[in-house]
Amino acid sequence: MAGRAAQRFETAQGATSVKHHVLIIEAPYYQDVSDALASGAIAELEANGATYERVAVPGALEIPQVLTAIVAAGLIPSSTDGGFTGVIALGCVIRGETSHYDIVCQNANHWLMETATRHAIPVGNGILTVDTHAQAMVRAGHGRDGKGADAARACLRVTELAAAFRDRAKR
Q1: Catalytic residue among 20, 21, 100, 110
Q2: Digit-coded pLDDT (tens) for 103-123
């Protein structure tokens, strides 16, 4: 309507009382890259008072399969004891000489996000897709300045927004 301000939904970061318990699914195919990503994610989670568990899978294609298994087990979406409030996916795919890179990147990211959106799972996607190992190390960064920390921040923020939407729906 003219003359009326549109209603916006805003919530300050950290404004909800969500107790974060996050699952980190990591594909440590490139161990040094994985270590840097995990270091950043864990530093960010700890800085925000979140608890976490870690599980390793052979490669990026297995990350969405594990997310699906967690959904099937009823451990997510859940904020109850034993469940997870969100997931952080960490891995790295480096371009090679064949089309395998494209297949892995497209499928890992597609099925990760398809599962996340279908089941309303807060996911921070820290699967790097790069041309070289050097690029991967720069993007992985160290501590809270790298893509692992970015993925953790995304997961925590989406978790907070989902909780705020649930709280609003109860009113």
Answers
A1: 100
A2: 999 999 999 999 999 999 999
